[in-house]
Write a structure and sequence with these properties.
Blueprint lengths: L2 E12 L2 E12 L3 E5 L6 H8 L7 E6 L2 E2 L5 H4 L2 E4 L11 H10 L5 H15 L14 H13 L5 E5 L7 H16 L3 E5 L3 H7 L2 E6 L2 E6 L1 H5 L6 E8 L5 H6 L4 E7 L2 E6 L5 H11 L3 E8 L3 H9 L6
Parallel strand pairs: 3-8, 3-9, 6-7, 7-8
Antiparallel strand pairs: 1-2, 1-4, 4-5, 9-10, 11-13, 11-14, 12-13
Length: about 300
C-alpha cells in the first residue's frame, strides 16, 4: 500500500530537552495507526511537527508524498485534526460550528451543505443542531468536535485522546464512528490512554518513550516481543509462603507472587501450566477459590517495554 505519512529521523529540541529523538515512522494508507506512549513521551510534539505547527531541528516529514510545510494548504486540506482540547465557537450553534469548519475547505455551498448534514448524522447530533456548545454534555461536545474535524471528508484524520472523560455510550459511538471513517477510506492516527480502545480498533501500533520509537507492529507482533505468554491467577487459602519458591521452580515460570490472598504466576511458553500449578497446590493442601488463565495484553507489552503504565 502507499505510504500516507513518512517521518524520518525526526528530532525536536527545547533548549536542553530533546522531546523527539531520531524518530522514524511510516503510516500506510487505510491504517488505523495507534500512537502510544506515557505522558511526556513525545506523542503530541510529534503530531505538532507532522502538522507543521512546530519547527523541528532535524529530519524529514512527508504527507501524501509531499513535504509538509506551514503553507502547504493542498495537503492540509486533506487532513482532519481532532485534538484533546475541544475547539469550537461557543457563540455558534452545533450546525453553525460544523458549517464554519467545513467552509474553510469546501467553498461550493451545495456541497458544503451536504457534507455538514452528513457530519451531523455521523456524529449523532441531529437532535442538537440548534444547541450552543455550553448546553451540550461532555460526550456530545466531543462528538461536535469530531464532526467539525471530519466534515470536509479528509483522507488523513488525527485523533488525540478523543474519548477522554466521556460516558460509555458516547465512547462507543466515537469508536464505531472511527471504524466507519476508516472503512470509507480515511487513514487514522489515534492516540489514547485507554489500551482497550487500541486493542479494539488499531490495525498497527507504535510505542514511543522519551522521544524514541521503542516498538512497532500489530497487536500480535507486539505481544510476541515479550517473554510473558500467560498469567494464572488463583484465589488461595492456607497458603504457606514458602511455596512460592516451589512454584518458581516449575517449568516456564518467570514470576510468582502472593498479594491479599491472590496468587499470580507468570509464564514464558509451555503447555499444561495450569494443570501443573493446580496439581502442586492440591498436593500441598492449599484451598483454591477461583482459578483463571489470561493471555498477555498490550498493557503487559507496554509495561514490559517501557517499565511504566500508559498513564504514568
Amino acid at each position: 500500500m502507499a505510504s500516507v505519512v513518512e517521518i524520518k529521523d525526526l528530532v525536536k529540541r527545547y533548549k536542553e530537552l530533546t522531546a523527539v529523538d531520531g524518530l522514524s515512522l511510516s503510516i500506510e494508507e487505510g491504517e488505523i495507526f495507534g500512537l502510544l506512549g506515557p505522558n511526556g513521551s513525545g506523542k503530541t510534539t510529534t503530531i505538532s511537527c507532522l502538522l507543521s505547527l512546530l519547527d523541528f531541528n532535524e529530519g524529514e516529514i512527508t504527507v501524501f508524498g509531499e513535504e509538509m510545510t506551514p503553507d502547504n494548504y493542498s495537503v492540509k486540506s486533506r487532513i482532519g485534526v481532532i485534538m484533546q482540547n475541544v475547539a469550537v465557537a461557543d457563540e455558534l450553534t452545533v450546525y453553525e460550528n460544523i458549517d464554519m469548519f467545513c467552509g474553510m475547505y469546501i467553498k461550493d455551498k451545495a456541497t458544503r451543505r451536504q457534507y455538514v448534514e452528513q457530519a451531523i448524522d455521523f456524529a449523532g447530533l441531529r437532535d442538537y443542531v440548534k444547541f450552543r456548545p455550553k448546553k451540550l454534555s461532555g460526550g456530545l461536545l466531543r462528538r461536535l468536535n469530531i464532526a467539525c474535524g471530519i466534515a470536509h471528508k479528509p483522507k488523513l484524520i488525527i485523533l488525540d485522546e478523543p474519548t477522554v472523560a466521556v460516558d460509555p455510550q458516547s465512547r462507543n459511538h466515537i469508536l464505531e464512528g472511527i471504524e466507519q471513517l476508516n472503512r470509507e477510506g480515511a487513514t487514522i492516527i489515534y492516540t489514547t490512554h485507554y489500551m482497550e480502545e487500541v486493542e479494539q480498533i488499531c490495525s498497527r501500533i507504535a510505542i514511543i518513550d522519551h522521544g524514541k520509537l521503542i516498538a512497532t507492529g500489530t497487536k500480535e507482533e507486539l505481544i510476541a516481543m515479550i517473554d510473558h505468554t500467560e498469567t494464572i491467577t488463583a484465589e488461595v487459602r492456607d497458603f504457606d509462603e514458602a511455596l512460592i519458591d516451589e512454584i518458581k521452580a516449575l517449568p516456564h515460570v518467570i514470576e510468582a507472587k502472593l498479594e491479599e490472598g491472590k496468587l499470580t504466576v507468570s509464564y514464558s511458553g509451555g503447555k499444561h501450566n495450569l494443570v501443573r500449578l493446580v496439581g502442586l497446590l492440591n498436593d500441598r493442601s492449599v484451598h483454591l477459590g477461583r482459578v483463571y488463565s489470561e493471555l498477555p495484553t498490550l498493557n503487559d507489552v507496554f509495561l514490559d517495554i517501557t517499565g511504566r503504565t500508559l498513564r504514568d
